[in-house]
Task: inverse folding
């Protein structure tokens, strides 16, 4: 007794070919699908590459034009300017403190000989620290004043640049 049954895969393939006239070769179809996916991915990458400058300028515009960003930059300059004024006041007080010490102890305080550093030196060190802190604040203010994305939101009443004189932050 012979078995006239064909394997199921072959039967489906032959039936498909008879019905459509197309040879059933799944590996070719899979290869074509893979090639199509790769081409679509390459096309998407090329489109992203071409539109990148437009997306970048739009992102910059959205970030700079953000109301929170604008308000932060506006307050940033006022805070820096007010910080410089506060440091100027601290420096003036420290100068007065040094002058008072020099007037009270023209020869230096005799009790300082047991200290690691005399009080006059400590006061002068504090003064130097305040002056350096002020210089840092002034440098930051001046550097940020030159940056377009920050200077755009600087109040017109603030000074363009800070220098050794005390600024007005009105």
Result:
């Amino acid at each position: 007794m012979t078995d006239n049954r064909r394997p199921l895969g072959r039967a489906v393939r032959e039936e498909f070919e008879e019905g459509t006239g197309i040879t059933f070769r799944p590996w070719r179809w899979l290869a074509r699908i893979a090639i199509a996916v790769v081409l679509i991915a390459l096309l998407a990458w090329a489109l992203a590459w071409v539109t990148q400058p437009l997306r970048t300028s739009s992102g910059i515009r959205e970030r700079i034009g953000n109301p929170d960003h604008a308000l932060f930059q506006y307050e940033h300059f006022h805070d820096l300017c007010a910080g410089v004024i506060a440091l100027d006041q601290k420096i003036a007080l420290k100068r007065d403190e040094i002058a008072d010490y020099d007037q009270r102890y023209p020869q230096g305080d005799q009790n300082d000989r047991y200290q690691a550093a005399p009080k006059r030196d400590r006061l002068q060190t504090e003064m130097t620290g305040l002056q350096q802190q002020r210089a840092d604040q002034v440098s930051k203010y001046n550097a940020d004043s030159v940056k377009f994305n920050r200077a755009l939101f600087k109040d017109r009443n603030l000074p363009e640049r800070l220098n050794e004189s005390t600024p007005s932050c009105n």
